[in-house]
Amino acid sequence: MNKDKITILYVDDEMNNLISFKAVFRIKYNILTAISGEEAIKILKNNMVNIIITDQRMPQMTGVEFLESILDEFPDPIRILLTGYADMNAVIDAVNKGKIFHYLTKPWNEEELDMTITRAFDVYRQKIEEREMTNKLSLSNEQLEFLLRQKLLS
Question: What torsion, rounded to 10 degrees, do the Cα atoms 42, 109, 112, 75 define?
Fold first, then answer.
């Protein structure tokens, strides 16, 4: 898998949608697909994923339930919800429980989805950079505190 490409996990219970998504975006992105939330969780455990795109209406586990279930273990990927239904409750739940970045309706528009992926990856990269900077700052702070204690003791 190409490490320079954005890795997207697309979750949908309709095989035709998975095939279509992969066919459209496979050249530009690393595409992983899952037919269910359960399968997607297995994929997340074995792959570094930058963006998760999920359908809302799936059997066993809705897209929001899937996104909510992975928040603690996989907080970094940016989340996008797709649905063929204008279900305002699903949108509200997705924002509040699933911490989605964006909501799109099906059938998706290739150009709009591609722009959303690009913006989502910018947010992902910024989130990772901020965490790295915070870690470096924390380490520097600990080192300064140690030096200050050493100075005060001598």
Answer: -20
Question: Which two structure tokens, joined as six digits, stand for 64?
Answer: 């929001």
Residue where the block lists tokens 């490409």: 5
pLDDT at residue 2 tops 60: no
What are phi and psi for residue 59, nearest 5 degrees?
-70, 160
For 118-142, the pLDDT digits (tens) are 999 999 999 999 999 999 999 998 9
Residue with the two structure tokens 């924002």 = 95
Q: Contact at 8 Å (CB) between 54 and 81?
A: yes
Tokens coding 112:
């709009």
* Cα–Cα–Cα angle for 103, 11, 106, rounded to 5 degrees: 45
